[in-house]
# Entry
Amino acid sequence: MAKQEGDAAQRKGNYNAPALDKAFLIIELLANNPQGLLASEMATALQRSLGELFRIVVVMEEAGYLQKSKVTDRYTVTYKFLDVAYRATPARKLVVTAQPEMQMLAAAIGQSCHLVVVQRAEGLVIAREENPGVRGFALRVGASIDLVRSCSGSVILAFTPEDAAERLLARASALRKEPVGQAALAKTLRQVRAQGHGLRESPVTRGVTDISCPIFGFDGELLAALTVPFLELLDGSQLVSIEDACAELKQTGQRISVALGWQPPRDA
# Structure
């Protein structure tokens, strides 16, 4: 609650738009409660009166940004936010360019893949392609990614310019309950830069090894991380080895980058 009030104070600055500010607070609150909330629960969480929020909630529902469950009366955020974000930011071009390549990658290696960009102090999954087979593991679009613990985060931090990476890491560290092992992280990032990709056992899912490679833009700026959560089956029936999946992933990442205007180094 304190963070939300602080964010509201920062947004006000020299201007004051109370209704708009409350709408932003509602969005942020629901983003942290994907199961949905009653209007009364939102009012309690934001320490506002029900009447103060209800008209704003209704307007947001009529505009298509919120939806109300006919069963529970709980409000949730709709995918209209993602649609607007894709159309208003470079994410749309990134997804449109990457999606066909991601589909071919998933078919070639029999594994799912997802695309991660930076959102403030975290990673955000903006696209995914599921394994076309009967078994697989995939993250949902909109999932938040820990930049410090994840393979995607290691790639993002490793290929972001040093000063920007330090600021990003500082923001990410502030969200964590435990301190960041700076020496271990620095070693990991050096290794990722040296080999051109990240590879590590998933810190949260047993049997999954994450592989990730960078996606660059026309000016060489890192745009995203393309990641394969490689699911190793007990009977060994996965389509390709981790090594082959890694090679396919890196080739896919390079094709996407080139399509976005990136020029590989001459000696690559």
Observations:
- Strands lie at 66-68, 75-77, 113-119, 122-129, 144-145, 198-201, 208-216, 222-231.
